[in-house]
TrEMBL record:
This is TetR family transcriptional regulator. SUPFAM superfamilies: Homeodomain-like. The keyword Transcription applies. Keywords: DNA-binding, Transcription, Transcription regulation. It comes from Streptomyces albidoflavus. Coiled coil: none annotated. InterPro entries: DNA-bd_HTH_TetR-type_CS, Homeodomain-like_sf, HTH-type_TetR-like_transc_reg, HTH_TetR, MftR_C. Residues 15-75 form the HTH tetR-type domain. The keyword Heme does not apply. Gene3D superfamilies: Homeodomain-like, Tetracycline Repressor, domain 2.
Length: 202
């Protein structure tokens, strides 16, 4: 997360502290596992007090949940910014490529974190909760783009679900890859399989 110029000095300071806490927490959790890290160790690594930590997060689990929330926000923003006439398969591929490209570019940090989320039951459950929220956001945007009624048409929900299933499949394949495959390339392969169905809008 980068600093935004439209924020006040106080807001930028809060964002900086939150970013430092998030970075320290995610690095430690990815390195040592969810149960192997305490809040005391996170605040020591970030150079802040325990009281400061709880001003931003209710628990170490919430650090990961916020990371996931940011990922979903980025995807919804990307879909909304895609050209109006772009085929749904292309728009949705570009949407999921936003976090996947970032993961691939920072694989040394991102891959252990993805493995942590997928292999820790509590975190994986929260990840699935977030995906349900992302699906609603993506389906609403798809309906708007295509002039469909999200309450009556099945397509937006199905298409968003297919895109997120591909996203989830790519993350699992990437997490299991010993060689550290490129998640963006895996996404391209996944969308080559589902692209025709995504572009069939009745």
């Amino acid at each position: 997360m980068t600093s935004r110029p439209d924020l006040s000095l106080a807001q930028r300071k809060r964002q900086l502290v939150a970013d430092e806490l998030t970075e320290a927490a995610l690095q430690l959790l990815a390195l040592r596992g969810f149960d192997g890290v305490t809040v005391d160790e996170i605040v020591a690594a970030a150079g802040v007090s325990k009281r400061t930590f709880f001003r931003y997060f209710a628990s170490k689990e919430d650090v990961v949940v916020q990371f996931l929330a940011d990922m979903g926000t980025d995807m919804c923003a990307e879909l909304a910014s895609r050209p109006a006439g772009e085929p749904p398969s292309t728009a949705l591929l570009r949407t999921v490529l936003v976090p996947l490209t970032t993961c691939g570019a920072h694989s040394e940090k991102a891959l252990p974190l993805v493995r942590l989320i997928l292999r820790t039951p509590a975190l994986h459950a929260r990840f699935l909760e977030r995906q349900a929220q992302w699906r609603e956001g993506l389906s609403t945007e798809l309906a708007r783009r295509l002039g469909l009624d999200p309450a009556a048409d099945l397509y937006p929900h199905l298409a968003a679900g297919m895109a997120l299933t591909a996203f989830d499949t790519v993350l699992w394949r990437w997490s299991e890859s010993e060689a550290g495959d490129d998640p963006a390339e895996l996404a391209e392969q996944a969308f080559a399989v589902i692209g025709t169905s995504l572009d069939t809008v009745d």
